[in-house]
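Changelog-linked ticket: manganese (II) ion example.
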Amino acid sequence: MLIVMHHHATPEQVDQVIAAVKVMGLTAEPIPGSLRTAIGVLGNQGYVDDSTIRTLPGVRETIHVSKPYKMASRDFHPEASIIDVAGVKFGDGEKPVMIAGPCSIESEQQMMDAAEQVKAGGGQMLRGGAFKPRTGPHSFQGLGIEGLKYLQQAGKAYGLPVVTEVMRIEQLDPICKYADMLQIGARNMQNFDLLKEVGKTKHPVLLKRGMSATIEEFLAAAEYILSEGNGNVVLCERGIRTFETATRNTLDLSVVPLVRELSHLPIVVDPSHATGKRMLVPVMTKAALVAGAHGIMMEVHPNPAQALCDGAQSLAGGDFAELMQEIERLLEFLQS
Ligand code: PEP
Ligand code: MN
């Protein structure tokens, strides 16, 4: 439930409402706004009886929010959030953030070469998986902690904050030590225990949409992280499973403007996993930016033909640099 105060309500009246919410055994989250204050009510399992609250001085109206996500919604948080990852900012009014790097960390040299190419092309963040969620157990599973060290080293050498995937709660401590941002992969979007533990850290999180998750489920997954006290969540559309087999997944671009309306959290797009095809990555990157994405995460590898994972959807460094020049021109046009 959302309690909307009159614009002339006094701070004492706001405090009185907060106290009344607490007496009901619920949590009150004041949401100050430029025109009036609202108070979000959290912790209820079902309908909240608002008969007492509505009679309190200063209360204008109560709005019942039946969505499974509240803290992630615009109702509770009308202003767009800016998420800061070691100085790189995601959100409205910020330049879209380009995150690039290989699918998997393969060696110290590969990560250094990738970081050099990402930096040279104008990317702002470096990606690389150390713990890989592979479809089959015989595929390369990642270098683990050793890989995290290479990622951190390459990021520091080129001044690029780094993001990497966490698959299990036990990996959280080392990953928080080596990485600036935690990635929750599509397969773990509804691993609620993992989401809760990630929510207990203050580390920025890149939450990827599950391959068969609805927008409501996607935002409800973000709610798990937010409700544990970590508001630093960036959403990532990475394609969904449909009947189509010509592409690896089906990129659902309409999710970008929809999420921007429903939620205050930034949203980025991953055209690499969404399409599975290198040829489609540049054009879908541009389409995502036109749709309003706050950033892009794409796979870039120093030698895609030799990649241990996802080479077919990875750009070579030169292709990335070329695409980044086209993006600069597109962003200028979009701002004009
Ligand atoms: C990845 O980004 O490395 C990855 C495994 O992506 P997804 O979870 O979207 O499949
Ligand atoms: Mn990949």
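Closing comment: Example verified and attached. The CA atoms of residues 271 and 283 lie 9 Å apart. The chain has a mean pLDDT of 96.
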